[in-house]
Design goal:
20 helices, 518 residues, 51% helix, 6-stranded antiparallel beta sheet
């Protein structure tokens, strides 16, 4: 007897645990789906829709209460997901869950205190209502906001006269409203309830506002160590320490530190090149999707070709495509000189379709216009090559040579070297770069200093008409300096290869982007 009791008790615990897991799973899937719709505009997969629909009486009720009053875009995503679940149950695959869906809609309607949401959900219920829903529909006749839709449904549904009478007798609505429905069902002309003019819906903010809210929540997640670091260090000194702290964290604790880093970086008055380098350092830590989206969007605000080349690896990603679209619209819509070539053209086309998923959001139209204008101006026969290969490491006295003969061109690249790195232009070793000493051009013994942040530096070089201009980390260090051949007495070459040469300490170069000029 005791053994049987134990087995039954164990079975009960297992069944209870299964129900709890089912609820937790539904909540997790609902939260992930709402976030996906908010951030990307994409609906969840058919598999996820099936799982949510199988417990629609519970999942729809959950989703209806997820909307953040401070985040209109997320609240709208909740409604979109409920609509998608309802539509799924009207397909052959989802038909077994139609009853659960209707129960979920009724629960959501009854618990919502937003008239617009209640009307929307009722419109969804009306399209698939059965005799089992009559009592609820009759009850809604007593609500001025709901009465018009409920009235139309009760008048048009077939074979529910007995159900209407039963609902009326139970006091679900006043006798006069029920009588009005009965008269209309018999074909008599009646003064049906009239819908009140709904106020014009406020524009839904662009989805990036929802991302900002998420990042701010991560930033405020309690973390005494990170807050102490911020309070005891100067802002610029806190950045590398925060990044190092994030390297040794995982999960939500890591997200909280990364969110503090991204937020602090946005508050500093740094030039675009410095922000690009520091954002790349953060992305190298492989952050969570929402942090990475914020990094990509912030990279777009730099409007640098280096940033465009870096985010190219994300433009066809389902999870990062929308963030990349925002960044591409920002860079190529505001930096025409970076616009051109097949890669820019492909990124613009991808951005056009990604932004179209958010067409009803505030600011999406302007972003789409910028992309369309950039597409009109994009020439496939010119532009940066937007290299996104892995970085090239050069050991002791190593070199990396590009064999193409170039005369006039623009070049952008990042470099890291404990010592010096020499750049050959027109096949001549004319430019020396050093983090500690600065930049020096052949023919000028002076070192031109520049500020640094972190191990990496980024350079922009223009060679035109035998003259060179150089910017390092966003600072102009030399402009229109004549190229001088190191071989004394020899004329400067009119064209030639590009080559990077390391000293005894080695060096690393990445993201070499070249644009040939006619």
């Amino acid at each position: 007897m005791k053994k049987t009791t134990f087995i039954l008790f164990s079975l009960f615990l297992c069944l209870t645990a299964g129900a709890q897991v089912s609820r937790r799973t539904a909540l997790r899937l609902a939260e992930e789906s709402v976030n996906q719709i908010t951030m990307t505009g994409y609906m969840p997969s058919a598999e996820v829709m099936g799982q949510l629909a199988s417990v629609a009486d519970m999942s729809i009720d959950m989703i209806s209460r997820m909307g953040d009053p401070d985040d209109p875009a997320q609240a709208k995503a909740c409604i979109k997901l409920i609509d998608a679940i309802a539509d799924f149950t009207q397909t052959p695959t989802g038909a077994p869950y139609a009853d659960a869906m209707r129960e979920g809609l009724k629960k959501a309607i009854d618990r919502s205190d937003d008239p617009a949401v209640r009307r929307h959900l009722l419109d969804g219920l009306v399209t698939c209502a059965t005799a089992d829903d009559v009592q609820h529909l009759v009850m809604y006749l007593g609500d001025a906001d709901m009465a018009p839709a409920a009235f139309r449904a009760l008048v048009s549904m077939k074979d529910i006269d007995a159900d209407i009478a039963r609902a009326g007798s139970m006091g679900a609505a006043s006798d006069s409203l029920v009588a009005l429905v009965v008269k209309a069902r018999s074909g008599k002309a009646v003064a049906a309830p009239v819908a009140k003019a709904a106020p014009k819906a406020a524009a839904v903010p662009f989805w990036t506002s929802s991302l900002d809210i998420l990042i701010d929540r991560m930033r405020t997640h309690p973390d005494a160590s990170a807050d102490s670091l911020l309070s005891t260090n100067a802002t610029s000194a806190a950045l590398p320490r925060l990044l190092n702290m994030a390297r040794h964290r995982d999960g939500k604790a890591r997200d909280a530190v990364m969110a503090r880093y991204i937020t602090l970086l946005g508050q500093l008055n740094l030039n675009p090149a410095m922000r690009y380098l520091l954002l790349r350092e953060a992305d190298a830590l492989n952050p969570c999707d929402d942090i990475r989206r914020k990094i990509i969007i912030d990279l777009g605000t730099t409007r640098l070709v280096q940033a465009l080349a870096y985010i190219r690896k994300y433009y066809d990603s389902r999870t990062m495509g929308d963030a990349t679209a925002v960044a591409v619209a920002d860079i190529l819509g505001n930096n025409p000189y970076a616009n051109g070539g097949k890669h820019a053209y492909n990124m613009l086309n991808a951005a056009k379709y990604s932004l179209a998923c958010h067409y009803d959001e505030e600011g999406a139209g302007e972003a789409i216009d910028r992309v369309l204008n950039a597409l009109d101006e994009c020439r496939l026969d010119c532009g940066y090559n937007l290299a996104m290969a892995r970085s090239t490491s050069m050991g002791k006295n190593g070199f990396w040579k590009m064999t193409e003969d170039l005369a006039d061109f623009d070049m952008a690249f990042d470099w890291k070297a404990p010592g010096k790195i020499v750049v050959c232009l027109h096949s001549m070793p004319v430019l020396t770069l050093s983090r500690t000493q600065g930049a020096r051009i052949e023919g000028d013994a002076a070192w031109h200093r520049f500020a640094t942040e972190g191990e990496w530096c980024t350079a922009n070089i223009r060679v035109h008409g035998g003259k060179v201009s150089v910017s390092i980390n966003g600072e102009h260090v030399m402009s229109d300096v004549c190229l001088v051949n190191p071989d004394r007495g020899a004329a400067a070459n009119a064209s030639g290869f590009i080559m990077f040469t390391a000293d005894a300490d080695g060096a690393e170069v990445r993201q070499v982007c070249i644009k040939k000029m006619p």
